[in-house]
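Query form — protein ESIP1 protein

QUESTION: What is the three-dimensional structure of this chain?
INPUT:
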Amino acid sequence: VGPYVLVTPNETRRKQLQQIAKKELDDLEQWKKEHKPGPITLVPQRLGGNESEAQVRQSQQMILMQSKYQKKQKREEYARAKKAAEEAEILKKKAIQREKAERLEVKKRQEEMQRREMLLEDQKHKTNELLNRLDVGLPKSESCQIANPGPESTAWKRSHAYKQDLREDENRRLEEMKQEQQRKAELMELKQKQEDEARTRALKNEQRSCLQSLFIFYFILRVNNAFLDRLQNKIQPNNTYHPGYTG
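ANSWER: The C-alpha cells for ESIP1 protein are given below.
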C-alpha cells in the first residue's frame, strides 16, 4: 500500500449541507400539500350495455367466423394468382424455346441450301474442266466446216452435244432445286403463320378462361358476403335497453 493523506472531516460544512437538504425536503412536502388535487365530482350515469351476454358472444363468434372465411378466401386467391403467374411464366419460356428451335431449323436449312449450291457449283466446275480436257486436240469449228467431215469432226460434235446436254441438265436441276427451296420456304412461312395464329388463339382462350374464373370467383364472393350480411342482420338485436342484461 502506498502513502496516503488523511483529511479530517469538516463538521460545520456537513451540518450546513444537511440543513439545506432538510429545508429542500420540507419545501417539497409543503408544495405537494398545497397542490394536492381536490375531490372528483362526476355526474351520476347509468352504466350497462344494450345487449345480453349471449347476443354479444354470438356476435363475436360471427365476426370470428367471417374473419376466418375472409382469410381463407385471401389465401385461395393468392394461391390462384401465384399459380396463374407460374403458368404464364412457363408458357413464356416455352414460346421462347420454340422460337429458338424454329430459328435454328431455319438456319440449318439455309446452310443445307448453301452447301448444295456449292456442291453443284463444284460439280459444274469439274464437268467443265473435264469437257475442256476432251476438247483438247480436237479441230476448231471453222476448220471442221471447211474441211470434209471426218471422224474428228464427228467426235467434236458429239463432245459439244454432250457438253450442251450436261449444261442443260445442270441448269434444269438447279432450277428444280431453287423451286423446291422456294416451295419449302413458302411452306415454312405458312406453317409459321399457322403456329402464330394457333398461339394467339391459345393465349386468347387462356385469357378468356382466366377472366371467367375471376368472374365466377367474384360472383361467389358476392353471394357469400350477401348471405353473411343477411345472417348477421337476422341475429343482430334491436338497439333497445333490457333491464337485467349485462354488456
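ADDITIONAL NOTE: Residues 138-152, 239-247 have pLDDT under 50 and may be disordered.
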